Amino acid sequence: MTDRAAFPASSDPRAGVDAEALLTVTGEDHPGVTAALFAALNATGPAPLEVLDVEQVVVHGQLVLGVVVREVGGAGDLVARLGPLAAEVARVTDMTVTVAEVDTGGASPSVARHHVIVLGRPVPPTAVAGAARAIAGVGGNIEAIRRLSDYPVTSFELTVSGAGSTALRSALGTVAAETGTDIAVEAVGLARRSKRLIVLDVDSTLVRGEVIDELAARAGRAAEVARITAAAMNGELDFEQSLRARVAVLAGLPVGVLDEVREHLVLTPGARTLIRTLQRLGFRCGIVSGGFTQITDQLADALGLDFAAANTLEVADGKLTGGLVGEVVDRAGKARALARFAAEHGIPLEQTVAVGDGANDLDMLNAAGLGIAFNAKPVVREQAHAALNQPYLDAVLQVLGFTREVVLDAAPAEVASPV
User: Fold this and answer.
1) What is the spatial distance between Cα 275 and Cα 406, in angstroms, rounded to a whole number?
2) Can you give the pLDDT at residue 85?
3) Which of 45, 156, 266, 316 is the 20 to 30 Å CA partner of 405?
């Protein structure tokens, strides 16, 4: 260990001013490395050191540890004085330790910082290379990369500084389209970690397929209704008008068909894992649907959800009348339902997440703190905060920044399969 007395007073013109240095430790990871470094830093002198920043990552057993320290009112060259310390730590730990000067000339300007999440099955090298080029192309710098998951999708999170949100999303959107991966962009900050509520669309999001199309098939009008549904989800038709037109063809169906359709619902792979993981992490979870309460209420009960909003089919004499009862949950109605759900639990909208696939979800997606388009129509992907085109709904967890390890800890019983 370096002796404090080994550092005589210096005539260096910088004497008496604050100095900063970066120590970088690399090598095969093993216990005690971090403790040894900080113990050595605590013992050095002549002036006490302050720790300004620490970053540590282990990649397949290889450690990279960086520590920025400052000496207040030091007497001379801090890097030179830390050299013997670095050599001693390297000897004791069998690691490589380097010391470099940190430029303290003037305050660093505030720069935008974002998380960039790259997801795929798999993630090809071209996607990471393309993302790196795109980030550099809009003036961004990659500060850190970590793996979030390897199942059911592979995902990586890049921490990026120095690029604006709009430019970053635009540049990375092109990379995603070219490489067949999903790339989401979120601002770094407490808002990301403060999310506490999620609402999911039902048809083609929480469950596979469209319930109204299944009902229409039982009325012998499947093709007609499917065309109207597609046009409405693409934003080509007013949702309420299209909904009433589709419901009208169901007139005369026995109410029992609702039970049949409900019994044949298939959850989107990963739906149960997503919900149970978020519930165990303290999230409020709900569904907001342009479908029907006769389906969604029991679905919400089965999944233990906190909230459900949908339309109600009118029934008379055991048959569907072809009409609706009460307020229609259309595009604007979905956003109102989200706001109502959040208000009931005292959660600000910026701490909410919404997931959907159709044009009637857009107001809800934009009202939420984070709106995610899931296997969505083009008009929705273009306007949502983030877009996922993976077949697994629990990929939403990676967009929220949760690692595979967090998912396993929160819901170990549900992640053996992606269902």
Assistant:
1) 14
2) 93
3) 266
Query: What is residue 231's predicted lDDT score, i.e. its pLDDT?
Result: 87
Domain count, the chain: 3
Catalytic residue among 29, 203, 330, 363: 203
Taking the C-alpha atoms of residue 216 and residue 237, their distance in angstroms, rounded to an integer, is 19
Range of the structural domain that residue 176 is part of: 113-188
* 408 and 287 co-located in one domain: yes
Which one of the listed residues 182, 201, 330, 394 is annotated catalytic?
Answer: 201
Q: Show the tokens assigned to 114.
A: 């974002």
**pLDDT, tens only, 65-80:** 999 998 877 666 889 9
Query: Do residue 367 and residue 244 come from a single domain?
Result: yes
On whether both 184 and 212 belong to a single domain, the answer is no
d(CA 333, CA 212): 18
22 assigned to some structural domain:
yes
Angle between helices 211-218 and 222-233 (to 10 degrees): 160
Say if residue 148 is in the same domain as residue 210. no
Do 196 and 242 contact (CB within 8 A), yes or no? no
Distance separating alpha carbons of residues 405 and 333, to the nearest angstrom = 37
Q: State if pTM tops 0.85.
A: no
Active site (annotated) includes residue 394? no
Active site residue 259: no
pLDDT at site 111 = 75
SS3 content of the chain, % helix, strand, coil (to 5): 40, 25, 30
Task: For residues 366 and 384, give the distance between their C-alpha atoms in angstroms, rounded to a whole number.
Answer: 7
Beta strands 370-374 and 386-388, pairing class: parallel
- For residue 132 the two structure tokens come to 């790196």
Q: What is the pLDDT of residue 106?
A: 53
Residue 82's nearest CA partner among 46, 56, 53 is: 46
